[in-house]
Specification:
Pfam families: Polyketide_cyc2 (PF10604). With 166 residues, the protein is α+β, with helices and mostly antiparallel strands. Helices cover 22% and strands 46% of the residues. It has a single domain, classed as Alpha-D-Glucose-1,6-Bisphosphate, Chain A, domain 4, CATH 3.30.530.20. Strands 1-7-6-5-4-3-2 form a seven-stranded antiparallel sheet. The radius of gyration is 16 Å and the shape is globular.
Length: 166
């Protein structure tokens, strides 16, 4: 990968397939913006702190333990971010949010999460796509950030499958 200039943006995208579930089953779990911690156990905190639930302008506070930033044998730093809901589109089944504060080192981070039908032979299933754009961040590499997001998305998809099959 070519070295990026300090002023360039990082743009990334990852996807996870969920076989056997329809978009209509998956979307209600994703659109609950302040319940991300129910889908991803690494997210210990996900609370509404400002705004109207489900409406653009809502701000949630999320906290994640990151073992890669461990300061001791059994200790890991809590990374946290306040995230502002920018768009919630139940017709297109997507939402966008921006990090507005936190200790993650992310600057100008905006993400979009979408769910859509899988284009497979059997037509059964859906895909969750998580895309983002941000400025290069101190303490991160692009690949490290993309890897974390991919891991969170894969965990989300697995937990949605388990919740919907229970």
């Amino acid at each position: 990968m070519a070295e990026e200039a300090k002023s360039s943006k990082w743009e990334g995208k990852t996807k996870a397939e969920i076989k056997g579930l329809k978009v209509e089953q998956v979307w209600p779990l994703l659109e609950d913006f302040c319940s991300f911690n129910k889908l991803v156990p690494q997210i210990e905190i996900c609370d509404q702190i400002e705004g109207v639930y489900g409406q653009p302008g809502l701000i949630r506070h999320c906290g994640l333990r990151d073992p890669s930033r461990s300061t001791g044998a059994d200790d890991s730093q809590m990374m946290w971010a306040n995230e502002k809901l920018l768009v919630m589109d139940p017709i297109q089944r997507c939402f966008s949010y921006a990090v507005v504060d936190g200790n993650t080192g992310l600057k100008s981070y905006v993400a979009t999460i979408k769910v859509f039908e899988m284009n497979g032979d059997d037509g059964k299933g859906c895909v969750i796509e998580w895309s983002f754009v941000c400025e290069p961040a101190d303490g991160w590499t692009f690949d490290g950030l993309l890897s974390l997001i991919d891991s969170l998305l894969k965990t989300t998809a697995k937990n949605i499958e388990e919740l919907c099959s229970a």
